Amino acid sequence: MTVPLKKIDEYRWEIPKSYKSGMRVPGLVFASEESLPKLQADQALEQVANVAHLPGIVKYSLAMPDIHWGYGFPIGGVAATDPEEGGVISPGGVGYDINCGVRLVKTSLKEEDLRPVLRELVGALFSQIPCGVGESGNIRLSRKEAEKVIREGARWAVSRGLGIQEDLETTEAGGALEGADPELVSERAYERGANQLGTLGSGNHFLEVQVIDQILDASLAGALGLEKGQVTVMIHSGSRGFGYQICEDSLDLSRKSLSKYKIDVPDIQLACAPVKSPEGQHYLGAMRAAANYAWANRQCLMALTREVFEKFFKRSFRDLGMDLIYDVAHNIAKFERFKIDGKEKTLCVHRKGATRAFAAGHPELPESYRKIGQPVIVPGDMGRNSYLLIGTARAMEETFGTSCHGAGRAMSRTQAAKAARGRSIQKELEQKGIVVMARGRRGIDEEQPAAYKDVNEVVRVMDESGVAKKVVRMRPLGVIKG
Amino acid sequence: MPYKILEHTADIGLSLEGKNLVELFQDGAIGLVSLITEIRPVAVERKRIKKSFDLSAEGPGRLLMLWLRELLFEFSAHGVIFSDYQFHDLRETALKVQAWGYRFDPKQDVQRYEVKAVTYHGFKLESKNFGWHAEVLFDI
What we know:
The complex is a heterodimer of chains A (482) and B (140). Chain A is an alpha+beta fold.
């Protein structure tokens, strides 16, 4: 069934509140006209309308241009609720991989430094960084240590020598949310998280060595210390089994409390509880625990990456200029202040496959970015590009300070596997100068470039609609995947 | 094949049909484990992990979800693939299963999907004239 879309302007489309009887607000979809037929092909837009049913939702159920069919929320969905107006928090609005996110590390290396040794370097990363299905990390967390990880997030890793103080300054929320409560984490989550810290995972998670191939805003790029030809490293991972289990536990709790709070949702995966209810507070404490685990995880993965580069180039990571540009969460719920109809309000912002994109001047930004705005990291696919954007004032007014999080899938896994039949995606990428190493061939086939929308188009919508500004574009050189 | 793959843009699902609940629950288990790895015909000495599952729920749908979650948890937390099952008791609200499995070795075993969770999205279990039908979507 086609979901009705009312054109607002070239990149904004409204799903009227009248589309479904329980919708409390309209949907607002950021998309180009050309992308609409694909969006109508699965249940993504229906899911935008479903999210509009959440009690206390403010203004719109939002969809970023990388939106695709998820479970409950669409991937690329954003919803802000007002706790003072009975607003809810929904574990499905964050997803199983709590604080899945990306970090971008710069280097002082140039593409020509890497070219002759690229295969060896990617091989070293592939052998040193635990990735794949069922792969354990080198860190074993006792219960006591796990509780520290939960409270301290990336700080825990830095305090163990896996990074430096400056890394925390350029990590969203300083790499740890306040209010994470180890007591609210189930035994099962502790068990699943015990040996998965410092592991990349599988699926769409990756580590990519890239080169900046286009400067799109010279002044912002300059302020970030980025130039054409410079090598960067991007890491995409989350809270691993620890977070998946917390989401599962919390969904059950929210599901059970739906009748208690007289909440009706069109999809059980949208189960939620008022932010101020015991169930809502329980989820918040546990979700923050998983968010902090994820920041510790990405910090450990970056430390491993630096170590590989150090051994490989026989220079210290500082000497190699391996500074963290930024680390962003793209599956998270946070309390942030926004002006709604002229009034300052604290809202619970759910970002499910969407990235915070605060404008210059925001007090939550580190000193170094307060003048220019928050870096937004947008990975694409392993054959085309990735981007670094900057948040804008328009995002603050319109999208609760949020931008897209990636390219977004265009093909199902089975379609992608079918499209790869009789081909070697790995060889095709190699012909383009991209070295890909993965644990299974199926992973490469299903994550092939054509399985994703063109990130260039997705980012163009964000840039031209004024939500986020393009700064630099990267091109992949080497990719490791689980 | 005792199960069919359901297409989804980002994730993957299973469609299951069984003459009775035992067949359905067995096929669901095989389906889930086969999403994670290729089940190996393992030597007797390797197949030495044994575990009893004793679950209860308000209905067969919830029971199927709990059963699949148990198997996923065993893999995610302990790296164990349970591939053989003996159903001692399976009613609409309770099950008792003896399962045998082996420790997954990422160096030797085929790696397919890292299944993150069994979701509620589109989840169904219904009785049909031939027996039972279920659909379940996994987060990948």
